[in-house]
């Protein structure tokens, strides 16, 4: 029963629950519930050869970083069972584990590797899941993330987001006036990074299309900002029609047919929507203040954007049909670059509290209750991007004098740093589900 | 609020430009007496239209003079109002542009690293536009001025403190042709 409650709590933490349970969400975001404890036992290797990746370690890291689970350290494990009959449930119960995950790798006749894995409920002494994934030897990371996705879904009822990718921009100072900008793509945990665009001029604001097949971003490669679309499979690029002044902050509509963007061709920065089929441009905002950083609501019916029309940057929502405008943020003197969770309920943003605090943090606002939770203690956090299942927010911040990527679970409890790469790292963007 | 500030800026710029113009008239010859509202000063002073057509004319600014003029103008946090200490030099740049119709400048707007990147791009553009407006009000033609904003992407100084930030909130004026 306790376990069941914890699983429910875990589900609530991802904040995609029905209205009826709203009061429980508050409890969870206050950090009352402990994460579910799991032991990911090192997987057995029956292939007769050393494997290039430690699959169980990747699974353990994925589950731990989601914020839902507290994995047991390997050093504390009394044994490393790889088969269900070797699990001594009493030991794991004493270690206060709710679940034990075991597995093993086997070689197939065709040279592929088969990962068999099992999830066991410690209290009930029951198997909850027993599956296998087959992959090429050099593709074990994909297999590990897939295993983590399956376990996550079985335990929380939510689709795992461990097989997703991120893109981000790195900047390196090569000389007094020489910089190198790179657009890079990596696994969600930062592993297997590769460069997909390189330029001596700034690159910024990468965003994924909802089908995960292409990116839009801003590049200054011509000396002026232009929006480009890059197809990931082929690397083919096309430049969206450019206008004098700003061309920035692209955002795909959920159906992929429209691109919200910011142009200053009419005098100052305004939000527009470009229909990618008809190439028709529609002006959305009309104000002498700065209007920028549009992002679509998941139902595609409204845009949220940053505007300083009230004197400081705050986030507004505009209904595209009725043109009704609503200011969403009131706490703090700087709220910008909002992103909504897929259920439309939570708004992640860059936030500065004002008063004593002078730093820029990542905050999440519950749009039902307007409660604001500041998730970071950072001087310079920016560019929040939410996992497709709403569990984790990735963002850019500074460590010492270096720009780095970090992430925090939406309840603020689990924070972690992405692996270091050369140069300043910024502008992370989380992909949608890719399968 | 911004509009009010801007109006104030423009009025101030006109006033300062007038003062600057007067102070130079004793040492230079009259030049570029153009536009409406020609001055009637006797000491070789020229025209100073304070409203509408803006200030035009004034002493000749040579390409050599340009070397003495500031080309970087700084701003307060989250503000796009040109500081008064930049007015004299901007007015002289404007005068040079009005006297040399084939000359043109590029105004590059920048922001410090605080705040979000796209907002800072917008802020950098607003700063560049403020400078552009001052140039045009003081006699440059809009076709001689182009603006681009880099936001926080090209800091002048790489530090992460108040001193560095103040040097990064800027507009750089670069001649494309003289």
From TrEMBL, chain B:
Keywords: Cell cycle, Cell division, Lipoprotein, Membrane, Signal. Residues 1-19 form the signal peptide. Residues 62-178 form the OmpA-like domain. Pfam families: OmpA. HAMAP family: Pal. PANTHER family: LIPOPROTEIN YIAD-RELATED (PTHR30329:SF21), STATOR ELEMENT OF FLAGELLAR MOTOR COMPLEX (PTHR30329). Part of the Tol-Pal system, which plays a role in outer membrane invagination during cell division and is important for maintaining outer membrane integrity. The Tol-Pal system is composed of five core proteins: the inner membrane proteins TolA, TolQ and TolR, the periplasmic protein TolB and the outer membrane protein Pal. They form a network linking the inner and outer membranes and the peptidoglycan layer. Belongs to the Pal lipoprotein family. This is Peptidoglycan-associated protein. It comes from Marinobacterium weihaiense. The gene is pal.
């Amino acid at each position: 029963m306790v376990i069941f409650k914890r699983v429910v709590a875990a589900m609530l933490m991802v904040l995609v629950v029905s209205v009826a349970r709203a009061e429980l969400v508050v409890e969870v975001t206050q950090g009352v519930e402990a994460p579910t404890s799991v032991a990911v036992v090192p997987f057995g290797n029956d292939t007769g050869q050393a494997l290039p990746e430690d699959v169980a370690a990747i699974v353990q890291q994925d589950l731990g970083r989601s914020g839902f689970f507290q994995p047991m350290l390997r050093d504390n494990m009394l044994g490393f069972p790889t088969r269900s009959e070797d699990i001594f449930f009493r030991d794991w119960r004493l270690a206060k584990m709710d679940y034990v995950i075991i597995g093993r790798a086997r070689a197939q006749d065709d040279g592929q590797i088969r990962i068999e894995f099992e999830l066991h409920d410690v209290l009930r002494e029951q198997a909850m899941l027993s599956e296998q994934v087959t992959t090429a030897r050099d593709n074990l990371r994909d297999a590990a993330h897939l295993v983590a996705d399956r376990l996550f879904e079985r335990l929380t009822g939510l689709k795992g987001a461990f097989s997703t990718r991120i893109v981000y921009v790195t900047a390196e100072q090569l000389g007094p006036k020489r910089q190198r900008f790179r657009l890079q793509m990596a696994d969600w945990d930062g592993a297997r990074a590769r460069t997909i665009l390189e330029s001596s001029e700034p690159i910024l604001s990468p965003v994924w299309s909802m089908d995960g097949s292409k990116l839009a971003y801003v590049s200054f490669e011509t000396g002026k900002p232009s929006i480009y679309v890059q197809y990931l499979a082929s690397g083919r690029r096309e430049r969206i029609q450019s206008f004098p002044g700003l061309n920035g902050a692209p955002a795909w509509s959920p159906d992929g047919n429209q691109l919200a963007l910011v142009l200053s061709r009419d005098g100052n920065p305004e939000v527009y929507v470009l229909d990618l089929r008809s190439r028709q441009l529609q002006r959305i905002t009309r104000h002498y203040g700065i209007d920028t950083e549009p992002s679509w609501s998941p139902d595609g019916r409204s845009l949220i954007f940053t505007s300083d029309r009230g004197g400081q940057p705050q986030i507004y929502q505009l209904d595209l049909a009725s043109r009704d405008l609503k200011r969403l943020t009131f706490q703090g003197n700087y709220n910008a670059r909002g992103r909504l969770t897929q259920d439309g309920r939570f708004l992640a943003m860059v936030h500065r509290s004002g008063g004593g605090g002078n730093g820029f943090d990542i905050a999440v606002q519950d749009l039902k209750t307007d409660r604001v939770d500041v998730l970071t203690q950072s001087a310079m956090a920016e560019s929040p991007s939410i996992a497709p299942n709403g569990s984790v927010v990735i963002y850019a911040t500074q460590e010492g004098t270096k720009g780095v990527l970090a992430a925090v679970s939406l309840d603020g409890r689990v924070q972690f740093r992405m692996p270091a790469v050369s140069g300043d790292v910024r502008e992370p963007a989380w992909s949608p589900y890719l399968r | 609020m911004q509009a009010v500030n801007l109006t104030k800026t423009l009025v101030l710029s006109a006033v300062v430009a007038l003062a600057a113009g007067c102070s130079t008239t004793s040492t230079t010859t009259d030049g570029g007496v153009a536009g409406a509202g020609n001055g009637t000063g006797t000491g070789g002073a020229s025209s100073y239209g304070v409203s509408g057509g803006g200030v035009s004319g004034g002493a000749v600014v040579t390409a050599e003079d340009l070397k003495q003029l500031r080309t970087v103008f700084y701003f307060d946090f989250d503000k796009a109002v040109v500081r008064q200490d930049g007015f004299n030099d901007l007015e002289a740049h404007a005068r040079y542009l009005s006297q040399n119709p084939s000359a043109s400048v590029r105004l590059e707007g920048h922001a410090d690293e605080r705040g979000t990147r796209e907002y800072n791009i917008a802020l950098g553009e607003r700063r560049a536009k403020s400078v552009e407006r001052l140039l045009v009000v003081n006699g440059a033609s809009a076709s001689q001025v182009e603006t681009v904003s880099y936001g926080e992407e090209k800091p002048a100084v790489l530090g992460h403190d108040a001193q560095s930030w103040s040097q990064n909130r800027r507009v750089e004026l670069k001649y494309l042709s003289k």
